[in-house]
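From the methods appendix. Each design record in this collection lists the tokenized structure first, followed by the designed amino acid sequence. Records were kept in a plain field format so they could be parsed without special tools. The example shown here is representative of the layout used throughout.

RECORD:
FOLD TOKENS (248 positions):
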């Protein structure tokens, strides 16, 4: 569904991403992991059309979309969440979700009906009439997910949607992410919560210092010495291998 080929992104003399490639099959959940500052969010910006790459190519459903702006990619079915969650504070939860729904539904009643459905789907059904500013961190993360989902995407780019959540909140939202995929939305996710990556992702790419250093199943990646050295650390890798074995 998505193919990223040899993407390089320079900011002056800084190479934020250097020759990175990945593919996302239709119907998959694919993870993108790596240390802070590795270039993961920059690569998301290129895929979603917020950044124009210095070189390389992005293809979606077999078509070259490298030159298309973000709003056209959204219409084509690419949606993303943002690492820093910023709801429209003056609107309630339903109205925030409807902002995404208006991409495909110009009629206000239709957009709000879809917002209601998506709100219930992500666990915000009881909060639809509340001000967005009143939500907890976990609630805001769900709202960010809902707003992207309301654009009715084919592929969803999740940028650390679990960051800042406690273990019980993570356990609650992991099945939501899986159900979104099961209902037909392909997912590419940046995530530091490795237990969630082990449980959700079929394929994982590892970005470090702007370059892909590994790819494979979560289990394979946890056993890769380059990944252990650059990102996980030996103790964490050992624990995650146990998680992967139990999950399998």
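DESIGN:
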């Amino acid at each position: 569904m998505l193919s990223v080929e040899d993407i390089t992104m320079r900011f002056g003399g800084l190479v934020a991403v250097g020759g990175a490639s990945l593919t996302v099959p239709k119907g998959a959940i694919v993870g993108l992991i790596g240390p802070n500052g590795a270039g993961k969010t920059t690569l998301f910006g290129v895929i979603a059309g917020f950044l124009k790459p210095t070189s390389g190519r992005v293809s979606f459903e077999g078509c070259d979309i490298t030159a298309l702006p973000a709003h056209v990619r959204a219409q084509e079915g690419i949606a993303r969440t943002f690492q820093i969650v910023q709801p429209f504070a003056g609107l309630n939860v339903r109205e925030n979700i409807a902002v995404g729904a208006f991409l495909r539904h110009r009629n206000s009643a239709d957009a709000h009906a879809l917002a209601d459905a998506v709100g219930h789907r992500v666990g915000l059904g009881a909060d639809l009439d509340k001000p967005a500013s009143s939500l907890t961190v976990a609630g805001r993360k769900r709202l960010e997910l809902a707003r992207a989902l309301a654009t009715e995407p084919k592929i969803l780019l999740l940028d650390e949607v679990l960051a800042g959540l406690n273990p019980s909140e993570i356990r609650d939202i992991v099945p939501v992410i899986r159900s979104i995929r099961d209902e037909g939305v392909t997912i590419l996710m940046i995530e530091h919560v490795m237990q969630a990556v082990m449980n959700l992702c079929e394929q994982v790419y590892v970005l470090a210092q702007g370059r892909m250093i590994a790819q494979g199943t979560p289990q394979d990646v946890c056993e890769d010495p380059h990944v252990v050295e650059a990102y996980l650390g030996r103790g964490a890798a050992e624990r995650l291998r146990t998680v992967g074995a139990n999950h399998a």
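APPENDIX NOTE: The chain has a mean pLDDT of 92.
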